[in-house]
Input
Amino acid sequence: MTVYKEGTILTLKKKHPCGSLQWQVLRPGLEYRLKCLGCGHIMLMKRDDLQKAIKKAEAGPS
Output
């Protein structure tokens, strides 16, 4: 199981209603707090659900 650090940019399989596929990890843990990079919406997602939804992960801005 991969643990994504704070600041990691994740590309998910499904689009957010704003049209963006990219999310930034704000807080890792059992529930991840993610921020949409398109509209700024913040959501919580369980780690197991997130593992299934990820298409690609890349290092965030330094």
Summary: Residues 47-53 form the longest helix (7 residues). The chain has one helix and five strands.
